[in-house]
Amino acid sequence: MPLALLALAIGAFGIGTTEFVITGLLPDIAADFGVSIPTAGFLTTGYALGVVVGAPLLAIVGRRVSRKRMLMVLMGLFIAGNLLSAVAPVFEVMLAGRIVASLAHGAFFGIGSIVAAGLVAPEKKAGAIAMMFTGLTAATVAGVPMSTLVGQHAGWRVTFFIIAGLGVLGLAGVAALVPQQPKPEAGRIGGELAAFRNPQVLLAMAMTVLGFGGVFTMSTYVTPMMTEVAGYAPGSVTWLLVLFGVGMLVGNLVGGRYADRALMPLLYVTLSSLAIVLALLPLAAHNKIAAAVAIPLIGAFGFASVPPLQKRVLDHTADAPTLASAVNIGAFNLGNAIAAWLGGVVISAGFGYTAPNWVGALMAASALVLALVSASLERRTGARGGRIAAGSTRSTPLSAEREPVTVGH
């Protein structure tokens, strides 16, 4: 494994920790600033929207900068945002710090995916991307519980100082271990925007929004579901979230391993399995053991789809991948926001705390339908290309004339 992947994973660990730790510290932060819990919830919403906006914006701004330097700039933003949160005198400054930190999120994972893929042989790209995302999943297993524990005992400001320190470590790792790579070849923004005319790219991003959104219909409301329906004590939810994180970690590694071998079949399996488990969870939630089994399965199937979806975007934007890759990271967060909103709608309508899972099942099933449409479109395009090649006067097959697709240079 190239050591540069370790540096990217460390940065991802810090970003994942700061994204999710706010949920465990929300009551403390709200009390400290004298605001309500719903108002403090804007710290989560603001972060998600910052990712959606920051991903394409910083990808465009950094087009003419080397990817290594851009990754260092993004880690600098991450550090600054978390330090601002740590010293914030009022809630509005805390919110500003969260937004500053979030701006780095999408572009870091988008550009980092390209760098990771460029560090290894073509047949190992998805595995390299998964290795970087391991930092994000490890944050849910270790970073978030530990940071929450520190915040509850030493104060939430100490937590954000520590997370800023993780950013410094990530910045040093990128500076020391990530090799210099050429600047992106696309000289004009039109070259990057042209990728969005490719229906396969749009389909992959729609699958990202729907598939990953399905996961967050469960995770957003897991605490009231487990305490009010399954009957777990509030203190036990932390361990259920650790199980969820373990599932995410395992799923991410499995997805990275098999996406290079059978990308579309893997998506069929993960998305269909995700839809089934989400559909069954409203029944399973009435049994503690069944609920404890279902939660990590949702994390596993959801995150097993991350490497193949990100790789699919890169495969179809090889000439200008930076913007599309960053936008796809934003699509994950867009899915989170939509899922949380829809889940809140069905709960407010009186359908109960398990109802969001039905919404998630429908989202995952819709993503599966899009995957089938994407594969069908690809087969038709390939068949058309084959007919053109067969009718040509040249004796060399069309597939043999194509240059290998490479990413990251």
What does this structure look like?
With 409 residues, the protein is mostly helical. 81% of the residues lie in helices and 0% in strands. The protein is built from 18 helices and no strands. Helix 1 (3-20) packs across helix 7. Residues 4-382 form the Major facilitator superfamily (MFS) profile domain. GO terms for molecular function: transmembrane transporter activity. The chain crosses the membrane at residues 38-59, 71-91, 103-121, 128-146, 158-180, 201-223, 229-250, 262-283, 289-309, 330-352, 358-377.
CATH architecture of the largest domain: Up-down Bundle
Largest sheet: none
| Alpha carbon gyration radius | 21 Å
Nearest-integer average pLDDT: 82
Query: Which regions have little confidence, pLDDT < 50, spanning 5+ residues?
Result: 385-409
N/C terminus separation? 19 Å
Q: What's the CATH topology label of the largest domain?
A: Growth Hormone, Chain: A
Give the strand content. under 5%
| Secondary-structure content class | mainly alpha
The count of β-strands is 0
Q: Report the CATH superfamily of the largest domain.
A: MFS general substrate transporter like domains
Helix fraction, binned, reads over 70%
Tally the helices. 18
The dominant shape is globular
How many domains make up the 3D coordinates? 2
